[in-house]
Specification:
Blueprint: H1 15-24, E1 27-28, E2 33-34, H2 39-48, H3 60-82, H4 89-96, E3 100-104, E4 109-113, H5 117-135, E5 141-143, E6 152-154, H6 167-184
Antiparallel strand pairs: 1-2, 3-4, 5-6
Helix pairs in contact: 1-5, 3-4, 3-5
Amino acid sequence: MAGLQTPAPVGGVPGDVEVVRDFVNTTDHETGSDDLTSTAELTSYLHRAGLLTRRTASTPDDLSLARDLRQGLRHALELNHDGASESLPGLGRTLSRLSVQLSWAGNSVELVPVCAGVPGALARIALAMNRTVAAGTWWRLKICASHECEWAYYDNSKNRSRTWCEYGCGNRLKVRAYRERQRANPAT
């Protein structure tokens, strides 16, 4: 079974990075929303994201696997933000449940999902993660340092030093810290 093509970069964000980032962002800490609360929502998301070529019914096991994958990826991106290196046994166990194989693709070898349907779509997310590591862009995928936001983002700064997903998150924290200092040390 041939895999879906790697998405082209959009707005300076490599396509595989976008696949992983968008999947992690199916949970929104700021609003408390979660796009993956039912099997129907999982199928709908994977179809909209172009990871399923046609709508296929997902199972409760698929939903559990998807949520485990998302949680493991989020934890890995938090480590990217801190520059830490840590073993992630939960992510490792989840990835071991996603079957991939080598396939001959004309003049090269590629990794493709073994299964079709939802398990194959989830394997495509893991393969996108693998390609970002191979391309050296994985370390630019991070989680916003604002605890109100915690959005996954692509750090396109020259030296990978961005802390927040956008200027607004950092600005809010800086203004809040400034106001707290002003209250603690009022001018006389």
